[in-house]
Amino acid sequence: MKNSRTESVRGRIEEVKLKKHITFNTSLITKAVIEIDHINHGLNKKTGILNAKKRTDFSLTEIEKFLMLLDGEYIMARNHKGRVSQFEVRVDCPVKGRFFGKEFIMIFDTDYDKPDQIHTITLYPGW
């Protein structure tokens, strides 16, 4: 499966096939939808649009390393919207470099109608 790309108010969104499948909340996850610009820029709280200045510079491969941290985990959802479960977890950065080992907050969701997919909404520093 080739990666697919879309654009939105929140920037570039990529759908990727995971190099290594993960099991999360008993579901086998094979695909990820990653809001890469939202992750790297963040959203302005007043306008809802992307900040001009980057807060991080993670690649899709590096975001996949964060997702690998969820393998084998069972986590209670923070919220539900219809058939979508929303999660917020604190994780230590697995990417070598200036953020390695630092705490990040990862916000993502899963959809009961797409059990093989995880949607990574954002990832921001937790310090």
- How many β-strands, per DSSP? 7
Average pLDDT figure: 94
Strand content: over 45%
Order of helices and strands: EEEHHEEEE
Number of helices: 2
Strand order of the largest sheet: 1-2-3-7-6-5-4
Helix content: 10-25%
How far do the termini sit from each other? 37 Å
What structural class is derived from the secondary structure elements? mainly beta
Overall, the morphology is globular
Q: Which radius of gyration do the C-alpha atoms yield?
A: 14 Å
- Major pleated sheet: 7 strands, mixed
Low-confidence stretches: none
Account of the protein in words:
The protein is mostly beta strands. Helix content is 12%, strand content 47%. The protein has two helices and seven strands. It has helices at residues 36-41, 60-68, and strands spanning 4-8, 11-24, 27-34, 79-81, 84-92, 103-111, 114-125. The protein has a seven-stranded mixed beta sheet with strand order 1-2-3-7-6-5-4. The longest helix is centred in the middle third of the chain and has 9 residues, at 60-68. The N and C termini lie far apart (37 Å). The relative contact order is 0.21.
What layout of secondary structure does this protein have?
Layout: E1 4-8, E2 11-24, E3 27-34, H1 36-41, H2 60-68, E4 79-81, E5 84-92, E6 103-111, E7 114-125
Parallel strand pairs: 3-7
Antiparallel strand pairs: 1-2, 2-3, 4-5, 5-6, 6-7
Task: Write a concise keyword list for the protein shown above.
127 residues, mainly beta, 7 strands
Short description:
With 127 residues, this protein is mainly β. The protein has helices at residues 36-41, 60-68; strands spanning 4-8, 11-24, 27-34, 79-81, 84-92, 103-111, 114-125.
